[in-house]
Structures are given as structure tokens and as C-alpha cells.
Amino acid sequence: MTDEWIESYISAGKAVIAAKKLADKLIKPGVSFLEIATKCEDEIINQGCDLSFPINMSLNEFAAHYSPTIDDPTVVPNKGLLKIDLGSHHNGYIADSAITFNINNDPKLQNYIDAAQEALEAAIEIFRPGTKLYELGEVIAKKIYNHGLRPITNLGGHELKRYKLHAGPFIPNKKDLSHKEVLKPGDAYACEPFATSGEGLVTNGKKSYIYRFAKRVKKNLPYEEINYMKKIEGLTKNLPFSPRLLEKHNVIPKNKIQRIIDTFKRKKILDHYPILIEITGAPVAQQEHTIILDMDGNPIITTK
Ligand SMILES: [Co+2]
């Protein structure tokens, strides 16, 4: 019999696979980001899972962390790289997977996707007990350099724990010897190479579209805010969320959502995830899978 935690990881993976397929069908120039976001996130719910983070729809030099706003006017442009990063969870067991769309099939941009994909496959190839995390980074970087591109080195894969999207250890996208943790049975990781023609570094943009409940604050908090704080914590359980989720669940009246979020950010009740931008403005591709090792040390790619 398969362990229950493995079953949950697999269920979470299936939901993300379904959402990725839907994204593939929907993404065409002119289609609104909101429509794609709503439908893909709903697909995860329809599959019997919950979101482990809001859909990320990051274009070109935006490497990650763009998620549509409540009345987002953005539509898919006629060309460019659109990264779709989707997260689900089943009982707290998380799936996290990303694919990049080459909107007008530009051969030059396809090279970025191929580089990230080959890097991901090379890492999966050696994903077994005993492999050190920097060894994954080594094969990732090598594949990307072979395409004449650079890996983004201040982004990387991460361990997944129950209800924890970013548990401790980090899978570097280069051979960084400081990441010497060793893979072992029972581990779960999201592995995510990013390829770019730029410097290979991202910086925080000015805006944030994704938030996370950080801590309860009680001092000097009006009754109304205490109420909202409790509701947000109950709904999101420390996992990242978009203001769209608060609207969907009627947690806060729509016209108050941004004001409450800004207040809670200031009061440190909420953390925020700024948009991540390649520092030279170069395009970025990302490919990501969730991989677990069962208790016998066999790898299972849950999102493929
Ligand atoms: Co991801």
C-alpha cells in the first residue's frame, strides 16, 4: 500500500497537471490574464485540491511573482515568454510546477525554454538519495550555459514541507558548494531552473501582487481588523495568496481589500512577495517540477 502522504502529493500533482493543460489551451494573444488565472485556479479546486499559492503569470523580464490583480486589464501580448507557475495542495502536501509559453513560437526565445527544460531534466536524472543539492545546481548551470545563456542564480528550487512552500534547503541554479545538503528518502522538492540572456540575477520590483499571513498582531488593532486578520489566517494558513482570493471568498468587501492589505503590510501582519525582475531586463524562461523520493528512495515527479 502506498503511504498516505505520497497519495496526497500525487493528488496535488494531478491538479497542477490539469491546470497546466488548461493554461496551454487558453493562452493566446488577446486573452485576459484574469480569465486564465480564474480558470486555472478553479481547475485546481475542481480537482479536489486547494491553492498553495496564486497563479504566477510573469512575462519576459519578469521572472516570477506577477499575479493578476482583482480588476487586472492585462491581456496576453502577441509575442514573448509567459511563465505560468501553479501551486496546489492536498492536505497540505504541495505541488509546485511551472512552464513557459513562447507566445509566437519565436525560435530565439525557444532556446531559453529548451535550456531551462534540459536543465530541469538533467537535475531530475540525478535526483536520488545521496545527491547533494549543489550537484543539482551544477548540472542545471551546465545545460543552460550550453545554450549560450545564464542561469538565474539568486532564484532556485526549494524543499516542500506540509503547508510550507519554502521549507529550509535551497536547490541552487549553479554549483554553489554552500548547499551541501544530501537528498534522502521522504524528501520533497520543487526544482526550478531559470534561463536568461541577461546577468542571471533578479531584483525586487516596486510592486507586490502576492501576500502571506505572517503573524497575529493584537496591540491597538481595531475590532474590524482583528476580524479580517483571523479570516485571512483561517483561509490561507500561512500560504501565499492573491487579493483575488479574498474577493472570491468574501473575506473583505472588494472596495476595502487593497486598503486592508496595505494596512496589514505596514503592521507586519502580512508579508509580501515583490515582483522579481531580471536586472538587465532580459527575457527569462522557467521550467519547474515537484519531485519526491519515496521511502525506498525512488523519485516520483508529481507534476509531469
Ligand atoms: Co513554482
How is this fold's topology laid out?
Elements: H1 4-26, H2 33-46, E1 50-59, E2 62-64, E3 81-90, E4 93-102, H3 107-125, H4 133-146, E5 150-151, E6 157-159, E7 170-171, E8 188-191, E9 194-196, E10 202-213, H5 223-236, H6 243-248, H7 257-266, E11 270-278, E12 284-286, E13 289-293, E14 299-301
Antiparallel strand pairs: 1-3, 2-11, 3-4, 5-9, 6-7, 6-8, 8-13, 9-12, 10-11, 13-14
Bound molecules: cobalt (II) ion.
Tally of DSSP β-strands: 14
The helical percent reads 25-40%
CATH hierarchy class name of the largest domain = Alpha Beta
State Rg. 19 Å
Number of domains: 2
Q: CATH topology of the largest domain, anyone?
A: Creatine Amidinohydrolase
Subunit organisation of the chains: single chain
Poorly predicted tracts of residues:
none
Q: What molecules are bound to this protein?
A: cobalt (II) ion
CATH architecture of the largest domain: Alpha-Beta Complex
Largest beta-sheet characterization: 5 strands, antiparallel
Fraction of residues in β-strands: 25-35%
> CA-to-CA gap between the ends?
22 Å
- Overall mean confidence score, pLDDT: 97
Strand order of the largest sheet: 7-6-8-13-14
Global outline: globular
Quickly give the structural class.
Answer: alpha+beta
Tally of alpha and pi helices: 7
Q: In the CATH hierarchy, what is the superfamily of the largest domain?
A: Creatinase/methionine aminopeptidase superfamily
